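Exercise: predict the fold of this chain.
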Amino acid sequence: MNAITAITAMKGEPTELVETASKLVPLLRSRSLWTDEHRRLSDDVVEALNASGLLKMYAPSQYGGFESSARTAVDVHAELARGNSSASFVVSVYALLNWMSGLWPDDVLDEVFATPNVKVCGTTAPSGTATPVDGGYLFTGRWGFTSGFLHSDWKITAAILEGGTATDMIVALIPSGEIEVVDDWRTIGLQGSGSVTTVTKDLFVPERRVIRTADNVQGQCYSEANSAKPLYQVPIAVLSTAVSVGQLVGAGKYALESFLERITDRGITYTNYAKQSEAPVTHLNVGEAALLVEEAEARAHRFADYFDAKVAVNEQWSQDERVRARVEIARVGQLAKQATDLLAAASGGSSLFLDVPIRRIQRDIDATLVHALLNPQTNIELYGRTICGLEPNTYHL
């Protein structure tokens, strides 16, 4: 029985979604070397994700989506990261952008979600220009770091109106097949995310598939079906934390798990320890790393529960709460990185081989945390700034 047929039909209950993600772990691990070498997810991994139902987590319910809780998203993406961080990263991107697509008018949603297990990718960085023409806009530009594009159906693309300023930004839903690819994703981390550069030149996008970035950032919903749902009142940056933070938790768990698997089969070179598991220094490292991972997961769960409680009563998000969402993912990332760095440093020379997971996990965490919205220094500085009584220096809240 392969990984796909072993997965039963999904109903969308949280425990089933997490269990399904867990069943994918062996497949994701077995494809990790291929994933890094080919800089994309393998076809059988994509097929398994399609069969799993996990891609429906943040699709609108009227199209068969689950509109999952944040707690479910954290635990599902953590399980996927226990298999492979690139896969978890891509699935979290699809979750966020599938939800974001739900802000467009209903006629656009009918088009987007007509595809089963639709995968929407994209970036909100305005790396191009949009020229108004009769009935729509001509999009021209280059957009880097388009994670998950190689397997996507649609792409959310941001641009500045021709002749406008940074505040004159719009975002469009564009079929992925209309966009050119630059195969430039050659990196030291998250190789399998396939975060290639995408290019358009004078590509016509009809006006109905374009909305203002300012509305988008603030969660303005143009869908009559979704506008009354509390989930679609959540600011994008806040939801981004909810769907992204689990990957970091799962990476930390995988680092600890993979470290423990090796310590009874190897000694510590140039010492009398025949087994690394017998050395007190190992006990200290494992104890400290385990606490860091536990704290990361507890922090992620606390935020998720807070998120879900607010959604349940449809409560608006204050500026302080939005800042807090930014800093929570930064702190979880810091904790996961500290744990993984500690374990990597204690993994010896044999950990340099590609088939030993710890260095891949370490690189993937580092690659995740240089993302502009996830960077610990940026987000913690933002938090400290507001504690000092200053206004945030960003509108990405």
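Check your answer against the key: Residues 14-112 form a domain with the Butyryl-Coa Dehydrogenase, subunit A; domain 1 fold (CATH 1.10.540.10).
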